Amino acid sequence: MNTLLNRLLLLGTFVLSSLSAAQKPNILIIFTDDQGYADLGCFGSKENQTPVLDKLAKEGTKFTSFYAQPVCGPSRSAILTGRYPARSKGWSMPASEITFAEMLKEAGYQTACVGKWDVSNRRAIIDRMPVAQGFDYYYGGLGANDSGKMKLHENNELMGETEDMAGITRLYTDKAIDFLKNKRDSKKPFLLYLSHTMMHTIIDASPKFKEKTGDNLYRAVVEEFDYETGRLLDTLDQLGVKDNTLIIYTTDNGPWNQPKYYENKKGHPANSIFWGDAGPFRDGKASIYEGGIRVPCIMRWPGKIAAGKTNDGLMATIDLLPTFAALTGAKIPDDRLIDGVNQLDFICGKSETAREFYIYNPGSASVQKDILLGNAIREGDWKVISPLKVGRFLEDGGTGEWELYNLKEDRGETKNLAKQYPEKLDRLKRKLESEDAIYSIVQPRKKSKKKKPKKAKSIP
After folding, report:
1. Are 278 and 254 in contact (CB under 8 A)?
2. Which bin fits 44, alpha (ψ -120 to 50), beta or left (φ > 0)?
3. Measuring CA to CA, which residue among 109, 303, 91, 292 is closest to residue 192?
4. Strands (E), 352-415
5. Virtual CA dihedral for 239, 241, 306, 55, nearest 10 degrees?
6. Given pLDDT bands bounded at 50, 70 and 90, which one contains residue 21?
7. pLDDT tens figures, 137-170
8. Per residue in 30-44, pLDDT tens?
9. Which residue, of 132, 348, 352, 451, has the greatest Cβ tally within 10 A?
10. Is residue 163 classed exposed, middle or buried when 0-12, 13-18 and 19+ CB atoms within 10 A define those classes?
11. How does 279-298 read in b/e, with b if 16+ C-beta sit within 10 Å?
12. Quick count: other Cβ atoms within 10 Å of Cβ 182?
């Protein structure tokens, strides 16, 4: 199955390889952190005011069965490579992995990454940093902000350390706008991967946003993110590139909403709310119930993607790399298995989803050992979950037995239908345990080693 898909992708990229630079669309990915499915007005929030993202949804299509990975590092290696984290290795993504930036750069794109990287073990390992992985320009943090501070790099140079979590969304937006206005080569199409640190804790927002939200600090962060996204989209308008830019907004996993976590997490004002809303879905970050991995997604591409539509077909972040290949004529890597599928016709409303099923937790070894042991598969409306063992902040381990849910009728996964439909359960169990769920190791592609960057002083 995967071999056939790869051959079809190669044929498609050959046909599209003659596209001129002017015909190739720009690509802007806005990727947030730990954001709940129902944090935006257009995805059901009654409290958070998000006029910019709501407008983006009206101008494009909402995808309501869109999936990421359970946690941050694995989610980033998956979106970058089109490969499940068991192959792309999550936080430990090796230099041998080929990112969509490397692929698009070969197709004539200028590439930039701004924000959270999180696939070089949160360290400055040169051949695993963005510039070595296909990005012409990089500015951001290599890891997370759990302690309320983070180191910032520009390309391979350490710029310093900051504790200004209230200003990080604005800073990243400024850098993204600066790339578009001052560093972009107007003769080339661009890929801009804007990977926000927010809403990963420790969160904070500017005073003007906190003033109106009281103890709901999370709402202030969401609303500031929405405002800053508006500044970025206005820049596309000002530069005259709106109509030829594909925008994809989504997030890396569900909200960090488990009481065992937020009742013990320190670093926020007393009594403040600093976690998101999973809406109708069960559990949150790190879980393979829907609240952990079904994420909001909006895509806009004027004249190509339908405006004001909602699409509930199955799609995932791992599908972006092969979709970009089909879109641009780029050559998809053919020396390794790509788990994603080409969804170009699907996002443009020309076909049903090309994805037959999705596997939920082919995560890195550390995830499966410390946080969640177990897996799940979705095919159509049906989802099967294996017996689970949970640790750390997760508490919902289910029944401890195999579970079967109809997600069309039961989005909250409240009615286990395993006993009512034993044949369906057995078939999906076999599929989950088949070769499609066994993740072979690809021989690494060697890259040259370079010296580590020099240290710099703290940012005031």
Report:
1. yes
2. left
3. 109
4. 357-359, 372-373, 376-379, 382-385, 389-390, 403-406
5. -20
6. confident
7. 999 999 999 999 999 999 999 999 999 999 999 9
8. 999 999 999 999 999
9. 132
10. middle
11. bebbbbbbbbbbbbbbbbbb
12. 7
Q: Where are the alpha helices (DSSP H) in 145-299?
A: 168-178, 207-210, 217-239, 259-262, 290-293
> Does residue 199 have a cis peptide bond before it, meaning omega lies within 30 degrees of 0?
yes
What are the angstrom distances between the C-alpha of 365 and each of 67, 86, 116, 402? 20, 8, 22, 22
**What is the enclosing helix (H) or strand (E) of 90?**
none
Amino acid in position 323 = T
Question: Which runs of consecutive H residues, i.e. helices, occur in 114-216?
Answer: 168-178, 207-210
Name the more confident of 259 and 20: 259
Q: In the numeric block, which tokens belong to residue 421?
A: 């439909």
CA distances from 345 to 207, 376, 448 (A): 44, 27, 38
Integer Rg of the chain from CA: 21
The rounded distance, in Å, linking the Cα atoms of 31 and 28 is 10
